[in-house]
């Protein structure tokens, strides 16, 4: 019994999808231009597809699960569930207008023509905001539409914003935030569900490890209570006595989000010799 996963054949999701499987300890043959392959050491069959087709393949049961951008999941509106956010390929679907246009509010889009490859998500946004605008669906190079007179505005994916900048456009509304997600359906057999549970356990351990850092520091004994409050860790920090009288070494984990604040507070509280390193896997 194997679980079938559909991933993008090539494009922005491919490298990170393969990397995530690898970090989950799953080895797959790479570098060959195949449409499918089997993992060497995990009951997983990988299908390589265009991202736009992945929701349908999962809905139809050709693949059991898939990795795809949330933007594609919601645009295609197939009968699939988002099982897990994957923390990569983060972007936003935004409306942008020529830089020199005045734009005060959504109502500026009334009676405008907006070019996009995401008509469903855009329609839903316009309806929700009672904006009557024309949607012009195109499949690529959306950002040049205003400069060639095809549309007044665009609705496209943005990550750094440099494509908008290069095309003389400014972002005016964010309509959807997206990242890569794992999708599936309710129709999995119990054998396949068991493999999926194993895979999810690994994915979550990998995701968690990226959000935390391992931290070691030295502290005088009288500062240990204050420092323990700053780095509570998973249960509590490990405290080991140093050879030097009156000093301890503390080991713990800190969240990446609040990392620099914590480090500043630790230094202020008397911590010395602070070492920080990446965590490969984290299981709670
Ligand atoms: O061939 P296939 O159909 O499989 O791939 P594709 O060409 O349709 O998709 P691809 O590989 O370009 O993107 C796959 C997924 O990556 C998207 O569905 C998003 O979920 C995600 N993603 C993340 C992005 C971006 N960031 C992104 N920046 N997809 C596209 N872009 C494009 C955007 O369309 C614009 O042209 O990058 C440009 C903007 O980038 P910045 O950095 O200049 O703002
Ligand atoms: Zn695509």
Task: Describe the protein.
It contains eight helices and 15 strands. Strand 2 (36-38) and strand 3 (44-49) form a beta hairpin. The protein has 284 residues and is α/β, with parallel strands linked by helices. It folds into three domains: 3-88 and 179-209, Periplasmic binding protein-like II (D-Maltodextrin-Binding Protein, domain 2, 3-Layer(aba) Sandwich), CATH 3.40.190.10; 91-178, Periplasmic binding protein-like II (D-Maltodextrin-Binding Protein, domain 2, 3-Layer(aba) Sandwich); 212-278, 2-Layer Sandwich (Alpha-Beta Plaits), CATH 3.30.70. It has helices spanning 14-23, 54-59, 70-76, 119-128, 162-166, 190-211, 224-230, 259-268, and strands at residues 3-8, 36-38, 44-49, 65-69, 81-85, 91-98, 113-116, 134-137, 153-158, 169-178, 180-184, 212-220, 238-241, 247-255, 272-278. The strands form three sheets. It has a six-stranded mixed beta sheet. Strands 8-7-9-6-10 form a five-stranded mixed beta sheet.
CATH topology of the largest domain: D-Maltodextrin-Binding Protein, domain 2
CATH class of the largest domain: Alpha Beta
Widest sheet, order of strands: 2-3-1-4-11-5
Q: Count every helix, treating DSSP H or I runs of 4 or more residues as helices.
A: 8
Number of strands: 15
- Strand-residue proportion: 25-35%
Mean pLDDT: 95
Shape: flat
């Amino acid at each position: 019994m194997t679980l079938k996963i559909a991933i993008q054949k090539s494009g922005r999701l491919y490298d990170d999808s393969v990397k995530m499987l690898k970090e989950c300890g799953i080895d797959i043959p790479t570098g060959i231009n195949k449409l499918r392959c089997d993992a060497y050491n995990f009951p997983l069959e990988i299908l390589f597809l265009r991202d736009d087709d992945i929701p349908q393949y999962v809905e139809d049961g050709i693949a059991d699960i898939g990795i795809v951008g949330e933007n594609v999941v919601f645009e295609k509106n197939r009968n699939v569930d988002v099982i897990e956010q994957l923390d990569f390929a983060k972007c936003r679907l935004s409306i942008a207008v020529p830089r020199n246009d005045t734009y005060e509010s959504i109502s500026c889009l009334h009676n405008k023509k907006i070019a996009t490859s995401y008509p469903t998500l855009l329609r839903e946004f316009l309806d929700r905001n009672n904006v009557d605008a024309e949607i012009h669906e195109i499949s690529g190079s959306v950002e040049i539409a205003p400069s060639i007179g095809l549309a007044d505005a665009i609705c496209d994916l943005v990550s750094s914003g440099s494509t908008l900048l290069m095309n003389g456009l400014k972002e005016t509304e964010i309509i959807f935030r997206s990242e890569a997600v794992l999708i599936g359906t309710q129709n999995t057999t119990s054998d396949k569900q068991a493999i999926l549970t194993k895979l999810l356990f690994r994915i979550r351990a990998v995701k968690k490890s990226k959000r935390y850092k391992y931290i070691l520091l030295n502290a005088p004994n009288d500062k240990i209570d204050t420092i323990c409050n700053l780095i509570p860790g998973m249960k509590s920090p490990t405290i080991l006595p140093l050879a030097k009288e009156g000093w301890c070494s503390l080991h713990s984990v800190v969240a990446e989000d609040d990392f620099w604040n914590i480090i500043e507070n630790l230094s202020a509280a008397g911590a010395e010799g602070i070492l920080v390193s990446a965590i490969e896997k984290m299981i709670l």
